[in-house]
Amino acid sequence: MGIPATIGGALAMNAGTADGWIGDFVSAVYYLHPDGTLGEYKPSSATFTYRNFNAPAGAVLIGCRLRLHRKPLAEIQKEMKARLKVKKSTQPLALASAGCVWKNPPGDVAARMIEKCGLKGKRVNGAEISSKHANFIVNRGGGTAADILALMDLTRERVQGHFSVALEHEIRTIGE
After folding, report:
1. How many domains does the structure of the chain reveal?
2. This prediction's pTM
3. CA distance 174 to 176
4. Which domain holds residue 85?
5. CATH code at position 117
6. Is 67 a catalytic residue?
7. What are the residues whose beta carbons fall under 8 Å from the beta carbon of 167, sequence distance 6 or more?
8. pLDDT tens figures, 45-83
């Protein structure tokens, strides 16, 4: 699928691309209950939704079983090379980022909306809304969490004002 992530992070947000989501390949999830006992969860069609995994309450994910398909090595290498070429041309891979910041709203694309608001390249200190892909906030050096959050607030306000759409975080912020 071409997603740089840990399996836990990919599961937690049902990471995906235009080709599919991690949830499309999951046959079982293993987790710890809050009391420390082991559990196994067999996902249903409602378990994985757009950028979300509806895990059992209080569960701590510890692993999963994936249904994968074998392909010849040459075919896999060809696909990986093609995916990387597209990513390099469309995403700011040379700079630190957390990937796409916003979920795509129904019927639209967050990056397009952000760009239409004139925010591509907008900076707050070392943090910048990428000039290559407007749904990425990159760190050009010295950017802080506060700088990134300020750009996120600005983006949310501008898109809301321009399109009357409330963008939802795709990334998860932790801490203050």
Report:
1. 2
2. 0.77
3. 7
4. 1-90
5. 3.90.78.10
6. no
7. 102, 103, 105, 110, 113, 155, 156, 159, 160
8. 778 888 888 887 888 888 899 998 899 999 999 998 998
- pLDDT tens, residue by residue, 74-110: 999 999 899 889 989 999 989 999 889 999 999 999 9
Of the residues 64, 128, 156, 170, only one is catalytic, namely: 170
d(CA 65, CA 30): 8
- 64 is a catalytic site residue: no
Q: Which of 64, 100, 117, 128 is catalytic?
A: 100
Residues 101, 132: Cα–Cα separation, whole Å? 14
Task: Tell me the C-alpha to C-alpha distance, in Å, between residue 160 and each of 45, 117, 133, 167, 175.
Answer: 31, 10, 19, 7, 25
- Beta carbons of 49 and 27 less than 8 angstroms apart: no
> Is residue 72 in some structural domain?
yes
170 labelled catalytic: yes
Q: Is 74 in the same domain as 13? A: yes
Last residue of a domain, one of 61, 90, 119: 90
Assess contact for 34 and 66: CB atoms under 8 A. no
